[in-house]
Amino acid sequence: MLKTLFERKFLVDERDPVGTIQAGGLQLSFFAPDPLYILQLLSILGITALVGNFLSLIVCHGILRKSQQTSFALTFGILLPIILYYPFFLADLLDIRSSPLRMTVLSLPLTCTLRTLHAFFTEQQSTSWSRYRREYGFVLHPLRHPKTQAFVTATVHSFLAALRSYGKWFFLLGISYSLLLPYSFVPWNTPRPLHETFLSFHPSHLANNFVHAVLTSWMLDLGVNTGVNGVMQCLSGIQFENVVDSPMFGSQSPSDFWGRRWNRLISGDLKNGIYKPVRQYTGSKHVATLSTFVVSGLMHEYVWYYLFYVNKHQDPADCYQPPFGKQILFFGWNGILLLFEYFVGKETWERVAKDLFPACTTVLVILMALPVGHLFTGDLVAGGYFRQLSGLLAIVRIDYKS
């Protein structure tokens, strides 16, 4: 049954318009989200919840309640290999080819790997299974009361707030896609293709990188902050933390961008699973910071390898396969920027930022990363990730009639 559900691959947009309008030399064609695409996405979320609950049992009753030696063998010899192999098994089993669907599959190994490391290094004690069941089964971080640390109960108001937010991002992304699709998501010509490895301060290159970064941020807003959040609220009865918080238009420093605004789901797990253990072991904040960004780069190399993985049903000649190493370079660059902020000093940075308008500080922060932004987003353009996501959106196709 699942194989039948996943027969369509959604590598190209095969939707028929739900309506057209002709005015003068223009024809506007309106396309609704593909319901089968949405059903496939929801099915993957359901599979993720089931697998996550199974993993939480192993963590709680295996790793946390065994000796150090047994826990080490279970963690690094059995559990982590299973978690990291799971996406490839699913891609081969169901012949999943769409990059957005594969990214949804990756939500489990990315979070569960780091949470398993956190459990192994810091929580060698008996712990309630209900806690790990929520952390592994629902992926997102549960929202806790600031005083009691109890889970915050989902309400009709919180669900409606997520629904309203979903509508806003759904509209913004739909408009953005309608404008960018005719340009294949590269509105400005650049001296070199965006998927190549290089450093550039060319204005059109920076502008394209900014557009792609904004799209990626809005996708997290739509897909995780509101979409997945709302579904998980209904399934669990509790609220969850937002994953992004206006990183492209509100960040006041590199640490603010990476630590409090951009993908807080992964940054929080990296902090618990990598930063804290390394800092405790070395006693150095700088070593822990750099180690965290190196691990983040390796994790994203794993992500990229899976996004463009050629499963057993595919022909390699038809697939885009990026070179290894670009994510390590990208996150290494941003790790150096964060160390630069530390060396300059928090007080000095805040004093300089205080003399600028907040918007100017945000522009400065974003410009520090944009010259290498294509190392992260260039493959998403060249490999079809942005294009394949259009099937989940309502878009308008504009055709010019002669």
Automatic annotation (TrEMBL):
Pathway: Secondary metabolite biosynthesis. Residues 249-308 form the Wax synthase domain. It is found in: Membrane. Pfam families: MBOAT_2. The chain crosses the membrane at residues 37-60, 72-91, 169-186, 287-307, 327-344, 356-376. The keyword Transmembrane applies. GO terms for biological process: lipid metabolic process. GO terms for cellular component: membrane. Its main location: membrane. Belongs to the wax synthase family. This is Wax synthase domain-containing protein. It comes from Fistulifera solaris.
